[in-house]
Please model this.
Amino acid sequence: MTTSDIISSDTIVALATSPGANGAIAVIRLSGADAIAIANSVFKGKDLSKQETHTLHFGTIRDGDVIIDEVVISLFIGPNSYTKEHVVEISTHNSNYIIERILSLLIRHGARAAKAGEFTLRAYLNGGLDLSQAEAVADLIASENKASHEIAMNQLRGGISSELQRMREQLINFTALLELELDFGEEDVEFADRSEFLALIGTLKEHVTQLINSFEYGNAIKNGVPVAIIGKPNAGKSTLLNTLLNEERAIVSDIAGTTRDTIEEMMTIDGVTFRFIDTAGLRETLDTIEAIGVARAKEKVAAAKVLLYLYDSLNNTAEEVIEQVKAFHREGLITILVRNKIDLEGGYFANDFDYQIKAELIGGGYADEIVALSAKDPASVARLTSSLVERIRGLVSDNQQVITNIRHVEALKLAFQSMEDVDRGFQIGLSGDLLASHLRDALRHIGTITGQIDVDRDILGTIFGKFCIGK
Ligand SMILES: Nc1nc2c(c(=O)[nH]1)N(C=O)[C@@H](CNc1ccc(C(=O)N[C@@H](CCC(=O)O)C(=O)O)cc1)CN2
Ligand SMILES: Nc1nc2c(ncn2[C@@H]2O[C@H](COP(=O)(O)OP(=O)(O)OP(=O)(O)O)[C@@H](O)[C@H]2O)c(=O)[nH]1
Model:
């Protein structure tokens, strides 16, 4: 690739820092073949065309004789830049007036206003980043906690890309062997035995499934892990939420049915963001407002990753706890039984009540554990939060790649289907060329994730259109 191949014809410009923000300095970024020439035509200082890449230069920006600002210019000579084109960054004083004047000055001198995500689009088109890395840039900017930051950073550093590359290589070897056999078709040779092929496709399918499943965790981490807090009226749901949030957000009272609607609160604990959802108490009622609340509670559990079921031994029978928790149960729902108000019993002592619940719900696989606490007491609630964090972290193993992007999941599902076709094809003795065609489909679907394979212009538009302008 020569420099002229990778440097696009038009030069784009945008504010790279946040518009309207209060900082001291703003950065205006130019990228393209004429970036240096355009900057030179408004900059009074050293001749930028004679400077080395990755150097800084002090000077003024002038519109005719008028000095608009004293600035610092950073120079990146293509392809040694983020976009792989010439990039010039102008650090100005952060004034909307100055920014507007410099932007329009640069446009008058031949630059064009960049569209959303256009710098990163160019980085992708010029081979600086692959598509999943470009998407990671958006995730990184949006990341607000340690867990989502870690996943986005891993993706930006090529974690997903290299994993997919390994998978593609295996598939390519596989296809090559199969096509070699096809060439010798008449002679009926087999270069690899069928069981080896089947084992390999089985491993690949398993791997793809693991990635698909990681999305549930990845998506929860990215958007906050939804936790539904459920229990009979007066179980202490609002009290627990208040202690968790350390503020009086939910209305607490001892009149059953105070919480008529659902309340949602975001909170980051040990780097994991949770969305706690308080819900109306569960009870048979003729009060229609509250009946709607109960229906909503069921919806919330359906959308939750974690269920905190609150009860206490004074107001609940073991039977009703068992019945309700079973009613909410579904595969993959992390269920923590929260036995509340232990201060009223003078501390927690396991008794028949617990043994029954433990045997039925923990033993039966409907719940993961029981945490006994007093919702009013922050120290005992801390035991619950550390258990919550541990369980969320436990969903993926340390070095497993996590998918956070729905586009990637869709592509992986299609790849899985093609692998299924290969698998089934083998079993029913499908001809080699048809098998190879299914294999190529699988390769193509995986390739769309990193963008190695023809990605539709519309899809690129959707991906980069979500970025902010200047990114
Ligand atoms: N001022 C500034 N800060 C920024 C960016 C930027 O564009 N400008 N970035 C963008 O959003 C991110 C950093 N990304 C960057 C990626 C590559 C290069 C770069 O100059 N690459 C060269 C040189 C590499 C080297 O010296 O090792 C290259 O790839 O050849 C710069 C920034 C975050 N901070
Ligand atoms: N002693 C004691 N009282 C508690 C504890 N947790 C909650 N309570 C009390 O129990 C009553 C009901 O608590 P809430 O938090 O309003 O219960 P809720 O589950 O939100 O009730 P609804 O809004 O009716 O669904 C209040 O008087 C709380 O102060 C606890 O750990 N110990």
Q: What stands out?
A: The first strand starts at residue 12 and ends at 15.
